[in-house]
Amino acid sequence: MTPKDVFHRVADGLDVVARVIAGAGLIGIVVVITLQVLFRYVLDESLAWTEEISRFLFILTSFVAITVAHRRQLHAGYSSLVTKLPVAVRRTVIIGVDVISIAFFVVVGLSSRKLIEVGLDSQAPATGVPMAWIYLVFPLFALLGIVFSLEHILVHLRGDADVLLSADEDRAVAEEAAGAIGVRSDGRSTT
User: Fold this and answer.
1) In angstroms, rounded to a whole number, what is the distance separating the alpha carbons of residues 125 and 48?
2) CB contact at 8 A, 113 and 83
3) In what helix (H) or strand (E) does residue 68 lie, and over which residues does it extend?
4) Who contacts 88 (Cβ-Cβ below 8 Å, separation ≥6)?
5) Which pLDDT value is given to residue 188?
6) Nearest CA to 73 among 153, 157, 164, 10?
């Protein structure tokens, strides 16, 4: 097994962990908000911790889901522009974007250290959770983002970029094929 294969296996494992965390966070948000509504409107009682926990879960879910989408290159509008470029230029642009992304993730990861240190001395008011625990989402976000960006670069340098087709590229290919046979993307005829 080559080092590249090991790296891809690590990235696959981190992707599974990230998807599980994001999915569990989403389920957690639904459960906590359901409890909040149930207690407030049905039982006429208010739970003080539900607002805080749902906010923390939302932050965790959002940041982890961003990295999951980043791995699949599901950037809003980015891939629809890149698909119009010639393949050689596309590869250069995508590698450039990933290098810039790595720089961004490094800055986030390094700057989160001070935030975590400050969070050691403070607690969330309703739950008493140390804020440092909440701020750990930033280095997690940075780590996942760096790994997935490095994976993109390796894939593009190796020439296996077909595995990185995004939803926009898939949709563009489907629309182009449908247009060639006279069918719109919603299934209706163009004639």
Assistant:
1) 10
2) no
3) helix 49-71
4) none
5) 56
6) 164
13 vs 168, higher pLDDT: 13
Question: Is a pLDDT exceeding 60 seen at residue 166?
Answer: no
Report, as an integer, the average pLDDT of 132-153: 92
Element (H, E) at 174: helix 167-180
Instruction: Supply the pLDDT for residue 104.
Output: 94
What does the chain look like in DSSP terms, one character per residue? Answer: --HHHHHHHHHHHHHHHHHHHHHHHHHHHHHHHHHHHIIIIIS----THHHHHHHHHHHHHHHHHHHHHHHTT--TTHHHHHTTS-HHHHHHHHHHHHHHHHHHHHHHHHHHHHHHHHHTT-B-TTT--BHHHHHTHHHHHHHHHHHHHHHHHHHHHHT-GGGG--HHHHHHHHHHHHHHTTB-TTS-B--
- Extract the tokens encoding 155: 């894939």
- For residue 145, give the nearest of 91, 93, 108 by alpha carbon: 108
CA–CA separation, 102 and 89 (whole Å): 20
